Amino acid sequence: MSQQGSAGNVIAAIASVFIPGLGQLVQGRVLAALLFFVFIGAAYAMWVFIIPPIIGLLLHIWCILDAATYKS
Question: Is residue 2 part of a domain?
Fold first, then answer.
């Protein structure tokens, strides 16, 4: 991944849309991928409580933007 907006970052951002953290994993950032996946998954799992899924959605958007704007 050479620069922001590169094809690799676009693919990583699209991957993160479907599975949180997958884009970071594609970029080789294992710890970030694991943390995004666990925290966003836990927030979405608490869909009954209203507030955690909203926080999960915001984290998911952050995850996508993080994958799209990553500079190695």
Answer: no
